[in-house]
Design a protein that fits this description.
mainly beta; 26 strands; five-stranded mixed beta sheet; Immunoglobulin-like; Coagulation Factor XIII, Chain A, domain 2
C-alpha cells in the first residue's frame, strides 16, 4: 500500500506499533477476565498483539476542518483487524486527532487511538457473575511506535506524535477526554453499514482499591529456549498483620495476536506473608513442559492470582511475559567478498537439547547475495552433536549485506542467526 500511495503522489511511510491493542468492543480498554475459584473463565474479545503495522499518508483533511487543523499524517491500515462500514478497512484517521483524544472524528479514530493508548484492565469474575477490577495498567499499550528514518536504515521513534508521554498528567487527561467523546457521532458522519457490532460507551476505567500487598516477577536467569525457565514471584507486605494466601500460578503459550495457544502448567500454593516482610516464591517451567506448546508461539505468559485465605475479597494479580532467547547459530563468510565473484559461507549449529533432533532443515537467504534461497536437509542431530554447512554464493549487489540462516526441526522452530557481509567492487 505504501508503494501504491507513493505512485499516486502521496508522501507515505510504514509505521510499526509494538504492544498494539485490539479493542474489539470500542470502549478504549483491553479487558481480561480471570476466573474465581469454581468459576468458568470468561474469554475476552480484546487482545494485545506483539506488534501491528500500518501506513501513514500525508494529505489534507478539509472534510474535518477548513483551517487545516487535521492536515498532515493520516493512518491507513491495509490489514485492518475489524470491519468498518461493513468491510475490512481502516482510516484515514488524523494522527493529530489520535494524539489529542478526538475519538469522535472519522475515520476509525477510536480504534486507532485504542491501538496506541488503551488502558489494560484485569477483572476477577466472582461466583455470582459480578466483576472486580484487580489490576490496571495504563502504560503497556503502544510501545516504540516506529518508522524508518529518512536517508538511513535507522529506526525513528514517533511515539510522541501519537500520544503524550506515559505517566504524565497530559496523557491521562487526553485519555479521559477520549472516553467522554460520543463515538456514535463519528459513526453517523461515516456511511451507514458498519455492521451489527455492539458499541460500548467508553468511560473512565475504575481503578482497583489500594492494596496492603504488592507483587512482581523476577527472572532468575535469562530465559533461554531449550533450557528450564526459572522465575521468582516476589510478594511485599504493606500490612501490619500476617496474611495467609492462596497463590494460583498459570503459565500459557501465547500467539503473536495475544490469544492463548494452550496452558503449559498450573500450580496452587499456600503461603504466609509476614507483616512488613518480603516473600519469594520460586517458579520453574521445564523445557519438557513448554517446548511443544511454544513451537508455534512467541511469548510465554506467566500470571499469579493471589487471594487472601481469611479475606477472599483481597485479590492481587501479577503478569509477566517471557520471551525465550534462541540457542546460538552462527553464519560467517571467510576472506574478502567481491561483486560477481564466488565466495563461501559457513553455518554452525549445535544441538542444545538432550534428545535427537529430527526432520531438520537449514534455510539460507539474503537479497543481493543469493538469487534463490539455499535449503539443506540435515540428518538427525544427536545430543551434543553439531552441524557445519558450507555453501558457495555469488554476490550480485555491492555494499553491506546480511546473510540469514534459519534452522527448523521437529522440536525447534525458526532458530535464526545472521552474519554481515561487506561486498566490495
Amino acid at each position: 500500500m505504501c508503494s501504491v500511495m507513493r505512485l499516486l503522489g502521496f508522501p507515505c511511510r510504514v509505521v510499526t506499533n509494538f504492544e498494539s491493542a485490539h479493542d474489539n468492543d470500542r470502549n478504549l480498554t483491553i479487558d481480561v477476565y480471570h476466573a474465581d475459584y469454581g468459576v468458568r473463565e470468561t474469554p475476552s474479545p480484546d487482545s494485545i498483539w506483539n506488534f501491528h503495522v500500518w501506513v501513514e499518508a500525508w494529505m489534507r483533511r478539509p472534510d474535518l476542518a477548513k483551517d487545516g487543523k487535521y492536515d498532515g499524517w493520516q493512518v491507513l491500515d491495509p490489514t485492518p483487524q475489524e470491519k468498518s462500514q461493513g468491510v475490512y478497512c481502516c482510516g484515514p484517521a488524523p494522527v493529530v486527532a489520535i494524539l489529542n483524544g478526538e475519538t469522535d472524528l472519522k475515520y476509525d479514530t477510536p480504534f486507532v487511538f485504542a491501538e496506541v493508548n488503551a488502558d489494560c484492565i484485569d477483572w476477577l469474575v466472582k461466583a455470582d457473575g459480578s466483576k472486580v477490577n484487580i489490576f490496571s495498567d495504563t502504560a503497556r499499550v503502544g510501545q516504540n511506535i516506529s518508522t524508518k528514518s529518512v536517508g538511513s536504515n535507522k529506526r525513528m521513534d514517533i511515539t510522541d506524535s501519537y500520544k503524550y508521554r506515559e505517566g504524565t498528567e497530559k496523557e491521562r487527561s487526553v485519555f479521559h477526554y477520549a472516553t467522554t467523546r460520543d463515538l456514535s457521532k463519528a459513526d453517523a458522519i461515516e456511511e451507514e453499514g458498519r455492521g451489527s457490532t455492539d458499541v460500548v460507551t467508553p468511560g473512565i476505567p475504575p481503578q482497583p482499591p489500594s492494596q496492603p500487598m504488592s507483587m512482581y516477577f523476577e527472572e532468575v536467569t535469562p530465559p533461554k529456549n531449550c533450557e528450564d525457565v526459572r522465575l521468582m514471584l516476589v510478594l511485599q507486605s504493606k500490612s501490619s498483620a500476617a496474611m495467609r494466601l492462596f497463590i494460583s500460578i498459570r503459565v500459557q503459550a501465547m500467539r503473536y495476536n495475544g490469544s492463548p495457544a494452550g496452558t503449559i502448567q498450573t500450580e496452587v500454593k499456600e503461603e504466609t506473608l509476614l507483616p512488613g516482610k518480603e516473600l519469594s516464591v520460586p517458579i520453574q517451567v521445564p523445557f519438557s513442559a513448554y517446548y511443544k506448546p511454544m513451537m508455534e508461539c512467541d511469548i510465554m505468559k506467566v500470571s499469579a492470582l493471589v487471594t487472601g485465605k481469611e479475606k477472599p475479597d483481597n485479590t492481587y494479580l501479577a503478569v509477566h511475559d517471557v520471551v525465550l532467547l534462541d540457542p546460538p547459530i552462527t553464519i560467517t563468510v571467510s576472506g574478502i567478498t567481491r561483486l560477481n565473484r564466488e565466495a563461501e559461507g559457513e553455518v554452525v549449529f549445535m544441538n542444545p537439547v538432550t534428545e535427537t533432533l529430527k526432520e531438520c532443515t537449514l534455510t539460507i537467504s539474503r537479497s543481493g547475495l543469493l538469487k534463490e534461497d539455499i535449503e539443506v536437509k540435515i540428518p538427525d542431530l544427536k545430543k551434543n552433536n553439531r552441524i557445519c554447512v558450507k555453501f558457495p554464493f555469488v554476490p550480485y549487489k555491492p555494499g553491506r549485506k546480511t546473510l540469514v540462516a534459519n534452522f527448523d526441526c521437529s522440536t525447534l522452530r525458526d532458530i535464526k542467526g545472521s552474519g554481515t557481509v561487506d561486498v566490495k567492487l
